[in-house]
Description:
mainly alpha
Amino acid sequence: MTKFLTLFLFLIAAIQVIKPLGWPGLKKRSDAWKLVAGVVCITFASLVLSALFQGS
Length: 56
């Protein structure tokens, strides 16, 4: 599920670079970094959570 979510969000970021989505905070092409930062945060959080629950 994490890989699917990461891939989906990276695709949204790629679409943002090609044609801005027009969502609040994503009006310009250069705002794609916000989506990529979100993907990195979600991936990091899922890795930390999986490591915490895998140890028990």
